[in-house]
Write a structure and sequence with these properties.
The protein is of the alpha+beta class. Strand 9, helix 6 and strand 10 form a beta-alpha-beta unit. The protein starts with a helix and ends with a strand.
């Protein structure tokens, strides 16, 4: 992505080891990222969830060999996100479409992530597919202090007695290198049945997200809040713009307000997934007013991006340039995910 090369020229003064000459300020940089791992399932049959396809004898022939290859590829991507600038993997990484805690343990114990010593925050959610959200954090950089899950209650708008089971929203509060940070990890309901027909589900998810954010702001109007995830909506959709109230311009963000750095990217045609020859930016990281000013004595937002290096894109065929997904047409492709990761940089003075 061309943003990376631009950032390297602009952000070099913020790296851990740069600009040590007398009179020059040095800065710490940390990457905060989100990645939809595209159905990271183990090979075991869980009788409680609909995971039968992702087993060795299931429709997808999900073998141990395939599972280990998928883990290896996911770990490579995670280790690379932000590395050009920070020389490190993300300090905090929200993930979606993971089956359980075991797959995350297997992931963080991959050789190129093991030294990062990632901690895991994960709860089983009521999603019928058995997929959850979670937060990975480098223990040397972040210390969780409060963890909670927030159930999303949605009922069919044609049958009020029928509940639609979906992912919980995960809230993790803690200290990033001494700064109190709140992170919410989301995976909002899909567009199954069509965008318009399913819109109310994502608006319900946004309302829950707003409720969580408001509760944090009521305790501290300047709280540093990061809400991230696969929202299954673009930055311009009503769930994000109207219900959540995220703004595209920093100067428009008032006290207790939210800024969405992804909206400008979406307007330029930058996306995190592609469908029917068009790009969407469903994967977003949205931040609160408390992260926006330029007093870098504590962590503040600097830049956002989509991590779309060449190896993550489909190399050939009809879907050339799309995210190189790991499973298509009933078989394992050897790819990565049908989503590109997204990230932000936080910086503060040393």
């Amino acid at each position: 992505m061309k943003n990376i090369s631009i950032l390297l020229s602009v952000l070099f003064i913020f790296s851990y080891s740069s600009m040590t000459a007398q009179g020059k300020k040095t800065y710490k940089v940390n990457t905060i990222a989100f990645y939809n791992l595209e159905n990271l399932f183990d090979t075991q049959n869980d009788p409680v969830t609909f995971d039968d396809d992702r087993t060795p004898n299931g429709k997808d022939h999900w073998t141990e060999e395939i599972y280990q290859d998928k883990l290896k590829k996911m770990a490579k991507v995670i280790a690379d996100i932000g590395h050009d600038v920070t020389k490190n993997a993300p300090a905090l990484l929200g993930v979606a479409e993971i089956e359980n805690r075991k797959v995350l343990e297997d992931l963080v114990n991959q050789p190129n992530l093991l030294a990062k010593d990632y901690g895991i925050v994960q709860f089983d959610s009521p999603d019928r597919r058995g997929i959850d959200v979670a937060l990975l954090y480098q223990k040397s950089l972040f210390r969780p202090t409060n963890i909670s899950k927030h159930e999303l209650l949605i009922y069919d708008n044609r049958d009020a007695s029928k509940r639609i089971y979906t992912r919980d929203q995960l809230l993790v509060s803690g200290f990033l290198d001494g700064d109190k940070i709140h992170v919410i990890v989301n995976h909002w309901p899909s567009r199954s049945g069509g965008e318009a027909r399913s819109r109310y589900k994502r608006e319900k998810a946004a309302a829950l997200n707003k409720k969580i954010i408001d509760s944090l702001h009521n305790l501290d109007p300047y709280a540093k809040i990061i809400t991230m995830g696969d929202l299954n909506d673009d930055p311009s959709n009503s769930s994000v713009k109207k219900v959540l109230g995220a703004k595209a311009k920093k100067e428009k963000v008032g006290l207790k307000g939210l800024y969405n750095p992804m909206e400008k990217m979406a307007k330029k045609g930058i996306g995190s997934l592609a469908y029917r020859d068009s790009w969407n930016l469903f994967d977003q990281i949205i931040i609160s007013k408390g992260l926006l000013d330029k007093d870098y004595t504590s962590y503040k937002f600097y830049q956002a991006g989509v991590f779309n290096k060449t190896y993550l894109s489909n190399p050939r065929g009809r879907y050339k340039g799309y995210p190189f997904r790991s499973f298509a047409n009933g078989s394992y492709t050897g790819g990565y995910s049908d989503h590109f990761p997204v990230y932000i940089y936080l910086i503060k003075e040393n």
